[in-house]
Amino acid sequence: MLVFFIVPLGASAATIIVAPSTKSVSAGSQFTVSIAADTKGKYANAVEATVNYPRDLLDVVSISGAKTFSLQTPGSPSRSGNEVFFSGGTPSPGYRGVRGGVGYITFRAKSAGTAYIKVVSGKVLLNDGQGTDVFDGVSNATIVISPSPKTEIPPIIEIPPVVEAPIEIEPEILPAPVITPAPVITPTPLPPTDTIIIKTSDLFNFIYILIGSIIFLITAVVILCVILLCRKSNKEKKD
After folding, report:
1. Is residue 30 in a domain?
2. Where are the beta strands (DSSP E) in 140-200?
3. Does the CA dihedral 197-198-199-202 come out positive or negative?
4. Region 190-209: what's the mean pLDDT?
5. Structural domains in the chain (count)
């Protein structure tokens, strides 16, 4: 059930609202509520709100300021115990409307039950040169928390192990090895030693004769050249 604590004192009374006013969630889930101001047609330039929540049912995950009253004062937003504090302002001429954002709170539902999020104190200051506080009412929120859905775990089916029959392996009978006799190697007889000596001597004799012939030819050519040079020299002297 939604619980309203609104006590109007006249046309200028303003209220602070927690929205949404009702919400259903499951335990373990997260949700966010906004804190806003309804200025009842007047220009306001500052809002303060202290919000209370049941700690046995809810945990605060995060808090943050809103865009309308975005000029946060020192210490805002903050949390102490089971209360969250907001204090913000907006430049002149201020804000006039029904949903001027003050801040946001993200909760986590802890367990099943009904949680009431309440504004326990607040201020709505007009932009009238005097900062007149016209706050005089609240609109709280009711959160219905259901138990967390249970995840059904499928039953474990045990499959008996398959036992295979042993396989009999017959031993393989190998044929008897065939032994081949080693080949008989007959040594090749070497040629007689004297034949090799005769062939080597003939080679040396040929080389000796060849060298001698070359020396003889060179000597003959040198002698012929000397004779020709001498004749040429004598002929030049006679002339």
Report:
1. yes
2. 141-146
3. positive
4. 65
5. 2
